[in-house]
Every structure is written in structure tokens, then in C-alpha cells.
Amino acid sequence: MVQLHFETRRNRKPVFQFTRELIDAAAARANVPAEAKLTLGYDLQDMDTLAGADGLVTSSDIVRDPKFLLSDLARGLPRLRWIHIIGAGIERLLPLDWLPRRVALTNNSGVHMQKTGEFAAMALLMLNSRLPQMVGNQHAARWDSIFTPSIAGTTVTIVGLGDMGAAAAREAKRMGMRVIGVRRSGKPHRFADEVVGVEGLGAAVAKADCIYVSAPLTPDTRNLVSRAVLDQAKPGAGLVNIGRAGVVDYAALRDALVAGALSGAILDVFDPEPLPPDSPLWSTPNLVIMPHCSSDDRDRYIPLTFDLAFENLARLTAGRKLKNRVDPKRGY
Asked: Is 244 labeled as catalytic in the residue annotation?
């Protein structure tokens, strides 16, 4: 009998809450065999039940909790073969030197696709229409007609072509934009007109009317969109960051917005979160702050997460390759 355990916090926001009803509904959709043992725990209060799990669905903060005994995982969870993290980013768990070789780690990449695509379309249209600047003018009671072109024919450079970047590229192509992708491999992508490796980032940014950052945070991507890169941006370009805060130099971004070198920015990710009240970002002109809520579907995030988890449970029991398996060497 295989056991899949779900471990969460009782104080989770509703969008991220685990419930027995949601687990059972997803199990029914996936036709999970009746003999499978599906358990639910809160705040690591029942370590005995957790200890018998073959698979674990949880969040990064649970794994980082001292009660989880990360340093002795093989002894504390002797049957464990797989951990699924309910977020796309796993940077808080790096380096993965704590992960036993027999245990696979998967993430939630792909669950965000529909909502992320909707956000990408909104953000690109907002920046093309200079909406952040118009909102600032409104608060200053300043009448300033800002005329902008149609978004069709403009260029977006997307830094990171994983699931989130692909969703943005798809929406950009639908609106008639030219898409330049920047990815580690440099391999072509079906939604991109051009793809370059990281070494071509500066040149790709220089061509962009909007820079769209969707890369994960790893040692290789930290400060990837640096001051030097932002200095190469086309005058009046906009920037979106839906990846991780550490990928972009926010101090340099603020300077560019204050100077008017960039026309606007929309940020969904910060470090730390929540963003402290004394952060200079709050008062940065032409900046829209999203409190890390752009890609999480209020009604479907956990159901879609559980659908992915049960698909991987079937793969695990059948000895097949798991979806979204994290490569410990790459960190994503």
C-alpha cells in the first residue's frame, strides 16, 4: 500500500489551504485506487503519520521547519521516495545537498499557466499604454495626455522561457508582438521569434520595448538583470518581474524609473516579503507593486496542484518518470 501525505499550515491563506474535501475530490478525478492511503497533517504535529509516507505534498516552509529533521531525512522518513513542493520556485531549499539520492523532488511548474498568461497580457498592455505613469498623474491631479502605439509590432524580451515565460510569450504573440527569448540553453521556442543564450541578454534587452523577467532564482540567475543590463535598455522601455526579486537589481531599476530612463515597471516579487513599509520601492514613480498574487488562481490553484500530485503518484507507483522533477545541479 502506497501512502501519500499532505502536510500544511492551518494559517494558510484560503487560496493555498489543504482540505480533506479537496484531496478526496482530486483523488476521485484521478481514479486513485481505494487501497492508497491519503493522509493530511497540519504544522508537523503528527510526525508518526508523516514518517510512513512514500510521497509528500507540502510547501518550502514545512521542509525548512526544524521539526522536519531535514539533516536526517533518510532516518526520519525511511519510506519517502518523492516530495512535491506546491510552488514553482524552490530557491529557499537550495542547495539540495540535504536531498537523499533516492528521493525525487518536484515542483508546481505549469499549474500557474492560465492565470500567468492572463497577468502577462494585462501587464504588457498596461506598460504599452503607460498606465503606471497615468495613475501617478492622477494622484498628482496632473492632466497629461500620453499617446502610445498599438502593442502589435512592439518587442518583448522574455528572460526565462519556462512555463511562466512561455505563457507570457504565447500571449505576446497573440497580440502581434515580436518575442525575443533568453534562456540558458539558447534553444528555439515555438512562441519566440528569436532565442538567445544568457550571453546575449544585453543585446536582447536593447531591442525590447518591454523586458519580461520570469526566470527562477539560482546562483546563476541572481542579479542577472543587473545595472549594466538595465543601462542597455531602450529609452522608455518597461519591465515586468514575475520570477524572483533576486534576479533583478531593484536599486538600479528604481534609479532608472526615477530618471525616466524606463517608462514603467510592474513587480510581483520582492525580498523580503511582505515588502517593508520603509522600502523606497513604495514611493518609486511609475511602479506598480503586486503583492505576489499575480499567478495564483484563487479557486483552482490547490485543485490543479493536487491533480498534478496524483498524476505523479501514478507515475511513481508505475516506476515512470515524474513530471516537473527538479535537477539538483541546476536548482530548478
From this structure: yes
